[in-house]
Write a sequence for this structure.
């Protein structure tokens, strides 16, 4: 029994079709059926039940499949280990890439890896995604990069997050979008789209994420046709059938052309790329490469952690959504965030620290005290609640924020207070890279409300910090009067779903054991009149106006138990909530 027979048999079981198995191995369907029939005669066992063009594996065939799968895994392992005994003692890593962006991303890291491991050579194979994936499964490739993965694709594979790439749209010069420099999600509404790949690719996670993004913005994307490759897609686009949609940064795939433009999707929509390799491969060079990538670019290897059976990164993304299930404009649009802070900072005439922030800073200083701190990087300083005190704890404080107005305000306040060690970087945190921005401490508090991919943001903190990473959030639990309104009247109270526990759980799944301290906080809520008091409470209840129409007396009775009137006629409530500090010593990804 030769290896070809075994491979044809395995593929026939996996594809549940002799025809699909033949396509997979680039042979005729007749060749596959003849080899399977020969195998059945040799074994004197029926491996498949045949019903016209349909096949079904028999119990004996299933047993034989499981055993042959194990045998082929051992065979491939033996081939890999033989490389260690070759006379020239050189080892080779075979890398599969399907896009230019994959090549451009990995090449600098491979050069660095080879400087550490001069006995390892690497080669590239290009091709269609599914073909490369099969080569990884069979050991013909060591690793590959992919964003288009079905759960069934990864049954025998490990995949680790590598890098992100943009979603792209290719438009013809006659199209109205040709005049734009970038596209938003709203631009896709009603737009005829051409997808690269067969219809079955619409079911993979990459396209499903894109579909979900569109649905969150109130529409379903209009897919008019598919194309086998970029060339076919461009031909269909030139014929006016639609615009070509890439789940990748097409600027790294297509050459510039005067008749078409490549536009990338603005906002938080990005596609995760993974490095994929065989789960049971014991080839040392592959393991060394994965370890190098983990150290050099921050990809995180699988950890021997308890299976918490939840994707806490996804739960965080859900917590960032508004009540209608969409993301706020400030989260999805950088310009909207800049405009918010532009208008907000125009109202800030002088620097003043909130009293609760000083309570948090007392605890932060306790964390900093045992360390020799020279540099601190603060994420999203806002109006500087922590900035000025942080500057007293180090030689150099660098503030990172997307808003120039925020950074100008911080600089002006620093000058007025005589602090000369505060500097700034105008950037989104997600765009920061550790190579040029290492700092003893990285600090961020209440600044994560726009970080859709919190895991990536925490990984960047872990990369940039050299001695300590500190993050925090103020968390307001449902107030007693909200709870009573809910229990007695069924009020649907709107509350912030973000919670510090996401920080802890995501770090845990990254292999980082973080420390947590809960800090009791309080603040006085004051309204000048009873009408303003009631209006504020009702504004945080869905259908609050209807509630007041039907239950005004009960609502006011409940609120009267909690709010106290002072001599000047104002109404007060002491809100008790908590701040959470989460910190860890930066560690190399494991």
């Amino acid at each position: 029994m030769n290896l070809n027979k075994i491979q044809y048999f395995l593929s026939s079981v996996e594809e549940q079709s002799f025809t699909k198995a033949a396509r997979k191995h680039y042979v005729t369907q007749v060749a596959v059926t003849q080899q399977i029939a020969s195998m059945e005669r040799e074994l004197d066992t029926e491996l498949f039940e045949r019903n016209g063009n349909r096949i079904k594996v028999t119990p004996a065939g299933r047993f034989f499949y499981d055993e042959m799968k194990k045998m082929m895994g051992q065979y491939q392992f033996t081939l890999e280990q033989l490389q260690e005994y070759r006379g020239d003692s050189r080892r080779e890593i075979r890398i599969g890439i399907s896009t230019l962006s994959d090549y451009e991303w990995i090449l600098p890291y491979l050069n660095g890896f080879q400087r550490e491991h001069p006995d390892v050579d690497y080669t590239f194979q290009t091709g269609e995604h599914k073909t490369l994936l099969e080569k990884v499964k069979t050991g013909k490739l060591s690793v590959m990069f992919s964003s288009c993965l079905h759960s069934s694709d990864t049954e025998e594979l490990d995949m680790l997050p590598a890098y992100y790439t943009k979603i792209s749209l290719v438009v013809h010069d006659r199209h109205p979008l040709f005049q734009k420099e970038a596209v938003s999600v709203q631009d896709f509404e009603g737009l005829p789209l051409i997808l690269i790949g067969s219809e079955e690719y619409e079911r993979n996670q990459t396209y499903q994420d894109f579909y979900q993004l569109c649905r969150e913005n109130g529409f379903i994307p209009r897919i008019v046709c598919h194309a086998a490759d970029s060339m076919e897609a461009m031909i269909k686009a030139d014929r006016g059938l639609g615009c070509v949609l890439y789940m990748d940064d097409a600027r790294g795939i297509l050459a510039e052309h005067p008749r078409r433009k490549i536009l990338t999707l603005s906002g938080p929509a990005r596609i995760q790329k993974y490095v994929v390799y065989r789960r049971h491969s014991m080839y040392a060079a592959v393991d060394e490469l994965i370890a190098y990538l983990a150290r050099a670019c921050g990809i995180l290897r699988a950890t021997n952690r308890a299976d918490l059976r939840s994707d806490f990164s996804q739960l965080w993304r859900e917590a960032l959504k508004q009540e209608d299930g969409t993301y706020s404009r400030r989260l999805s649009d950088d310009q909207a965030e800049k405009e918010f802070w532009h208008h907000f900072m125009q109202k800030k005439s002088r620097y003043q620290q909130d009293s609760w922030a000083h309570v948090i800073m007392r605890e932060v200083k306790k964390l900093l005290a045992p360390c020799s701190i020279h540099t601190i990087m603060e994420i999203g300083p806002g109006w500087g609640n922590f900035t000025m005190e942080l500057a007293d704890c180090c030689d150099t404080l660098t503030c990172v924020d997307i808003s120039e107005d925020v950074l100008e305000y911080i600089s002006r306040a620093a000058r007025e207070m005589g602090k000369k060690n505060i500097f700034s970087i105008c950037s989104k945190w997600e765009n920061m890279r550790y190579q040029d921005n290492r700092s003893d401490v990285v600090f961020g508090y209440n600044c994560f409300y726009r970080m859709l991919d919190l895991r990536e943001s925490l990984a960047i903190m872990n990369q940039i910090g050299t001695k300590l990473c500190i993050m925090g959030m103020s968390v307001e639990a449902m107030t007693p009067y909200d709870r009573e309104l809910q229990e007695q009247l069924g009020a649907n109270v709107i509350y912030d779903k973000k919670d510090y526990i996401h920080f802890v759980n995501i770090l845990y799944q990254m292999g980082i054991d973080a420390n947590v301290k809960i800090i009791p906080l309080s603040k006085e809520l004051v309204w000048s009149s009873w009408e303003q008091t009631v209006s504020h409470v009702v504004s945080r209840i869905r259908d609050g106006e209807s509630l007041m129409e039907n239950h005004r007396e009960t609502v006011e009775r409940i609120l009267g138990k909690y709010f106290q009137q002072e001599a000047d006629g104002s109404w007060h409530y002491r809100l008790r909530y908590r701040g959470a500090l989460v910190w860890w010593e930066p560690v190399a990804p494991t």
